[in-house]
Amino acid sequence: MKIVGLSGSIVGSKTRIAMNSAKKALTEKYPDLEMTLIDLADYDVKFSDGRNFLDYEGDTGFVTKTIMEADAIIIGTPIFQASIPAALKNIFDLLPVNAFQDKVVSMLVTAGSPKHYLVADLQLKPILSYMKAQIVQTYVFIEERDFHQKEIVNDDVLHRLDRLVEDTVVLTETFKKVREDKEAEYDF
Prior knowledge:
single chain, alpha/beta, two-stranded antiparallel sheet, FMN, FMN reductase, flavoprotein
C-alpha cells in the first residue's frame, strides 16, 4: 500500500509538524507500508494551466504523479483567512477530476483559532468528494495552543492522529477488498 502525506502549504511549520507526527504514527504501527511525505514548501510546483498532469515535468510532475500512484492520501492543511491555502487548491487544479477515485483521503487541519473548525467540512470535503475520494469522515483539528516549541504537546491530538492513521489504513484495505471481490464477480 502506498500512502502519500501532503503538507499543503508553502509557509509555516505547524502543518509539517503535524504531518511528521502522522508519518511517525504510520511507520511505527505499519512498518511495511510505503509512505511518501510531500511538503509543498520543498517543491517548485507550477500553477495549473489546464494540461494533463502527465505533461508536467520537474517538481510539478513528481508531485502530481506521486499523488496519482497512491492508494491513500493524508492531506495536512493550515487554514488561512478562513480558507485552504492556494498551494493546496493548485494541487487539486493540476489533477484530473477523478484523481481520487478508488483512493482513501484523510485530513488533518491546523489553525490559529477554533473558529476555523468547519473549513474542512465546508471547503475541503466538497472538493475531495467532487474528485471521487473515499473520505475518512473524521479529521484531526489542531489549534495553535496544541503546539509548543515546534512539537505537539496535546496528548489528545496525538491520540487522534494515531486514530486517523489507523482509520486511513483500515478504510484503504477495506475498499481494496471490496473492489477485488466486485471484480472477481466478472468472468473474463
